[in-house]
Amino acid sequence: MHTSLIIALDWFGIAVFAATGALVASRKEMDVFGFALLAIVTGVGGGTVRDLLLGRLPVFWVQEPAYILVCVIVAVVLFFTAHLPESRYRLLLWFDAIGLSLFAVVGADRALDVVPSPVIAVVMGVVTATFGGIIRDILGGEVPVLLRKEIYVTAALAGAAVFVGGKALGVAEPNALLAGFLACLLVRGLALWLGWSLPPYRARPGRPQDGSRR
Amino acid sequence: MHTSLIIALDWFGIAVFAATGALVASRKEMDVFGFALLAIVTGVGGGTVRDLLLGRLPVFWVQEPAYILVCVIVAVVLFFTAHLPESRYRLLLWFDAIGLSLFAVVGADRALDVVPSPVIAVVMGVVTATFGGIIRDILGGEVPVLLRKEIYVTAALAGAAVFVGGKALGVAEPNALLAGFLACLLVRGLALWLGWSLPPYRARPGRPQDGSRR
Amino acid sequence: MHTSLIIALDWFGIAVFAATGALVASRKEMDVFGFALLAIVTGVGGGTVRDLLLGRLPVFWVQEPAYILVCVIVAVVLFFTAHLPESRYRLLLWFDAIGLSLFAVVGADRALDVVPSPVIAVVMGVVTATFGGIIRDILGGEVPVLLRKEIYVTAALAGAAVFVGGKALGVAEPNALLAGFLACLLVRGLALWLGWSLPPYRARPGRPQDGSRR
After folding, report:
1. Which residue among A144, A203, A209 places its CB closest to the CB of C141?
2. A159 at the B interface (CB within 8 A)?
3. Number of structural domains in chain C
4. What are the pLDDT digits (tens) for B141-160?
5. Is the ipTM reported for this complex over the cut 0.90?
6. What subunits touch chain B, counting only 3 or more CB pairs under 8 A?
7. Is residue B203, in this structure, part of any structural domain at all?
8. Engineering a disulfide at B173: which of A8, A170, B2, B46 sits with its beta carbon 3.0 to 4.6 angstroms away?
9. Which residue in chain C is spatially nearest to B81 when comparing CA positions?
């Protein structure tokens, strides 16, 4: 039963991440096949890295080519409609936030199928959620999402941790999935809306380094 | 019988891609070991990604170290001769085109060994053909090949699709391989020669968005 | 017996590479979770690529989550102390040199567990030693270590070759490990200290190309 929910979330996550890949392709004025390739690697990239690390081979989309077709359809639709929204970049960020939230819980859940470690489950949630976007930004020549200042990795971590913690505390799987998804979306959404960031590391060149290990 | 043809094409593809890696190393004025590393990752990179995704592990060159030695020999030869051709960049693009055409059909053929899906075979052809060059450009600090304007992904797609389509229609494997190879080389070659590109996506800021989903 | 030595070297290598990831995060003024992610991918990145290529799946840290925890601890400690050393960049380069030397021998040793080829063992030593830093530089937006002029790949190659050669000549494993480690550290250390580089490839536009294959 829960399996069909996970599968639905996974499909939705792949479609919205594929859309972010296509939007990056539109920013770089690629042709329609460039849209398709970037949509595919972004849509299935995070889950592919997860499957490789866990040893679930061949990776999921090799066994189910329909995932690829969905990415291609999304790419073609956006090739013809990406000029319609007022701000493509804003749309990209929000689609990315939804995909991030979906993959944070789906990735953690998949890891628990293979190893029972909560640490690994959280790490796999973060990896699945972030690597599609990382690959997209590297191939598309964008500033890597990791280097932007607003909270990003932290949101994926929050989502995966809420899901894994919830399950460990005996919460029913669908509820834990929903709670983790909402936790990530809330954190990332507030970060986007309010420009939230955590205190960054700051070099302190002028400060006297009194006391500690001079 | 056909297997020996595939193996020959694979070796040739690895050698020409290794040469493109060495040519990028020459553009960056690396030392001879930098040449060798970039030749190796470019030569075997596409096939390595393909084998990882398909779960054919350890990857092909771990089982046959001679692939690595060929890349090293190509790197050393080019370290001493790369100044001879008139335009190294032009040479790089043409070697890349030949490697692209070879790997588009070889990659698709290898995928059909693992899964019978034509969609996956075409995707694996494109992945095998393009990822060596993508890794080369990222590690070598070049503008990623995906962001250049001339037809590139499309050529690999054409080659893989002709090969897979031909086989599905009952064409003998060597003929299908040759047809796919020539289709890719023709498309990419014309793109290089004539500066061909497909219509790119263009932002339309000033156009009134009449009708559709305002 | 030797196994516990290898494991100790591996842990130490992961910790120092994690520190280099955290130092790059500090240069980019990331938040503490950015520190953690960059420390993790740098610390376990080289070994992860090695395990993927060799087909040792799931990769090593999925089976032993403590590796991840060590990277996180290193990241948190550096988040609060990275301003103390006088030159963070110098520290980064020296930690990187130690990690490079450790992973060159550990990576080669792990490869010999899977295939008996000395060529593959040396290649895997170089891959394990260099890919953590390559991933760190790509994700952290630094100039890729491969493009810097001082000897780098060559040092890893020297370390792996000394270890593999020593074992082939019958040297006891702990001695071969130590010799390979010191060989790499010596070469890289002298390169850092004295600015050593190998003769790079140089374009020769004006030179008459007499004789050879005109």
Report:
1. A144
2. no
3. 1
4. 888 777 777 788 999 999 99
5. no
6. A, C
7. no
8. B2
9. C212
